Amino acid sequence: MRSHCPACGLVLDPYRADDAPAYFTIFAVGHIVVPLVLVFERYANQPALWVHAVLWLPLSVLMALILLPRIKGAVIALLWAHRIGAPKPTPDSLDLSP
Ligand SMILES: [Zn+2]
User: Fold this and answer.
1) Contact at 8 Å (CB) between 1 and 10?
2) Which of 16, 17, 37, 83 lies deepest, with the highest CB count within 10 Å?
């Protein structure tokens, strides 16, 4: 992720999406691909497993590659909109001496 927005210069470092984009991407791709697999299995007269592998593996990877950056952008935008940013540690905050 970039540290600054190239358009407005907003500092993006405090907004850490962590695993949320991957989770939402898996959730979306799964809810699209699994019904397609089931419908195909039902109406294509139970095709061989290699047909499923050739169809659904590339589709799943392609959808994940398309969706992941957009979902990550949306998660970071939500974090920014709700002002949920992890404060960056400063030398003063790390000083634990009494
Ligand atoms: Zn911006």
Assistant:
1) no
2) 17
What is the torsional sign of CA 55, 56, 57, 63? positive
What is the Å distance from ligand 1's center to 28 Cα? 26
CA distance 16 to 84: 9
Instruction: Write out the chain's pLDDT in tens, 98 residues.
Output: 888 989 999 888 889 999 999 999 999 999 999 999 999 999 999 999 999 999 999 999 999 999 999 999 999 999 999 988 876 666 666 666 66
Segments making up each domain of the chain, as ranges: 20-94
